[in-house]
Amino acid sequence: MKGITLITGSTLGGAEYVGDHLSDLLESDGHTTKVINEAVIDDLSHNDHLLLITSTHGAGDYPENLAPMMEDLDAQKPDLKGLHFAVVSIGDSSYDTYCGAGKKADILLEQLGATRIAERLDVDVLEYPMPEEPAEAWLSQWKSKLCE
Ligand SMILES: Cc1cc2nc3c(=O)[nH]c(=O)nc-3n(C[C@H](O)[C@H](O)[C@H](O)COP(=O)(O)O)c2cc1C
């Protein structure tokens, strides 16, 4: 079983709740998880599995608790080879910048050499007022890859 870091980007608490929920599910499957709500780059370096769960704020921007790490990643461009990641992006489709933060993060992590282990999940809160429900279904589709 793998150790998995769940990093959340959240302003109103929704993405944080999804992170806690996915963490509980993974723990009940025997994985060791750590949820970080104000991550820094060093939180990535010693872990090989990352689940990034972020909502979008501003106009396609990262929530304030995630922005500093993502800006540091963009500026410092560390080599993330060896890191395996997946992104859950939460947004509202009435915005032109729907799920912009999760989309940016998904591209950046790949550009820095990390390996995507699942296609990004975009959750529209207009369709899913409880984003943990589609997130749980998404997790069950690919979590076997965590044991490979
Ligand atoms: C001020 C504000 C700006 C937002 N901007 C966007 C946006 O640009 N794109 C998007 O998809 N959703 C946007 N949203 C919707 C949030 O991402 C959505 O409500 C999400 O569920 C909030 O998650 P949180 O509770 O983790 O912060 C915005 C919401 C607010 C309140």
From TrEMBL:
Its cofactor is FMN. Residues 4-147 form the Flavodoxin-like domain. Pfam families: Flavodoxin_1 (PF00258). One of its GO terms (molecular function) is FMN binding. It comes from the Bacteria. InterPro entries: Flavdoxin-like, Flavodoxin/NO_synth, Flavoprotein-like_sf. One of its GO terms (cellular component) is cytosol. Keywords: Electron transport, Flavoprotein, FMN, Transport. PROSITE patterns: FLAVODOXIN_LIKE. This is FMN-binding protein MioC. It comes from Veronia pacifica.
